[in-house]
Design goal:
The protein is an alpha+beta fold. It has one domain. It has helices spanning about 30-40, 40-50, and strands spanning about 5-10, 10-15, 25-30. A hairpin with a 2-residue loop joins β1 (about 5-10) and β2 (about 10-15). The relative contact order is 0.17.
């Protein structure tokens, strides 16, 4: 999965792509990144649900 970094209104972003041609990558900044890290276990359980 390609990872890129960018900027939006002066704030750093991380950009996660499924592949190089991904037209709708997942982009988020540091505030959301911290929220994801703090709730990683719950997010993982959610992703693994049937």
């Amino acid at each position: 999965m390609p990872v890129e970094y960018g900027e939006y209104k002066g704030n750093k972003l991380i950009i996660l792509k499924r592949d190089e041609d991904d037209k709708f990558p997942f982009r988020f900044g540091k505030t959301k990144a911290k929220l994801i890290v703090e709730n990683f276990d719950e997010i993982k359980k959610f992703a693994e649900e049937e």
